[in-house]
Amino acid sequence: MRIFTNTVIYTAVALTAMGMSASAQEYKIGLSNGWIGSEWRTQMIDEAKAAAEAWAGRGVTIEVLVQSNNVDVPGQIAHVRNFINEGVDAIIINPNSPTAFDPVFAQAKDAGILVISTDAEVSSPDAIYVGIDQTAWGAAGAKWLAEALGGKGTIVTIDGIAGHPANTMRVNGYTEVFANYPDIEIVNQANASWDQAQGQQVMQNLLATYPNINGVLVQDGMADGALKAITAAGRAGDIIATGEIRKDFLTNWVENNVNTGASVNPPGVMASALNVAVFMLEGKELKEPATAGQYGNSLYLSIPFIDNSNVAEELAKLEGRPSYYTVSTSLSIDEAEALFN
């Protein structure tokens, strides 16, 4: 049985009702999200839907089918097979594995379906990746922390989901950076599944075990929980930790003058991928083919970084947004078009 959640359909009838001409192009795009453990993922889907709706202004009708569930890899492979059976034109996936989808992506290609991965790279030669370089993301936070510590100290790391492709690349990124700082010692690498409550509990445990640490490299989705644990332990003034890009964290950052820095992994990456997908469906070719990354099939987007020099400006941009809202950027239709001949 196929289950599609949060399906959004933008029809020619709706466009006509708004006084616009019927669409010259119609596409059906499937969005697959295999983990729903954070508001980041919800925002990712919402921004992708909004990107699809924006194409109406160009006379393009996009029907979006969404499958967003907590599933294992076979469950997410089923997402892809459902989309193939549905006859979509493109599939955009935030994958739970870098390699397990190779056979089913080959099936999608055989069916004439474009496949784009986002947020985590995949090895399939039948897909491209549109998103940030997660290795560079991890490296940026590590570089900031190393410099903030003056190149020496004892630190712990709090990572996301063990084995997830994005998490693995982030760990690789910070490991490469810290190799250049022999006076920085990592005494523990823990996982907290990109969950605030888990991040707080893991940080409490780490503080109990390693009371003399100087720094914490914590990934987004958990930094606020880690900071709460550090503050509760009375260590906010002497432990330097990386931060994150949620509005509630940025508010705390500004109000309490926290010394932190945060790489931006925008939820808008799926919206960027959707805009790129539409131009590819229209038969346009990228000016620079997607050949970056470890699998040679990636189109990397820029990675903003927030520190004390621009945090107030970034927080101001979130005025009126809920506390869990995340700093985000995405390629507009015009910006995506500029990537093509």
Question: Can you give the helix content as a percent range?
Answer: 25-40%
Could you tell me the CATH topology label of the largest domain: Rossmann fold
Total number of strands: 13
Low-confidence stretches: 1-23
* SSE series: EHEHEHEHEEHEHEHEHEHEHEEHH
The total tally of domains equals 2
Description:
With 341 residues, this protein is an alpha/beta fold. The chain has 2 domains: 8-132 and 266-303 and 330-337, Response regulator (Rossmann fold), CATH 3.40.50; 134-263, 3-Layer(aba) Sandwich (Rossmann fold), CATH 3.40.50. It has helices spanning 12-17, 39-54, 73-86, 102-110, 134-148, 165-178, 196-209, 223-232, 247-255, 269-281, 311-316, 333-337; strands spanning 8-9, 25-33, 60-68, 90-94, 114-117, 128-131, 153-159, 184-191, 215-218, 240-241, 262-263, 298-300, 305-306. Helix 5 (134-148) runs parallel beside helix 6. It is globular, with a radius of gyration of 21 Å.
Looking at this protein, list some descriptive labels.
alpha/beta, 2 domains, 12 helices, single chain, disordered N terminus, 341 residues, Rossmann fold, 7-stranded mixed beta sheet, 13 strands, 4-stranded parallel beta sheet, 38% helix
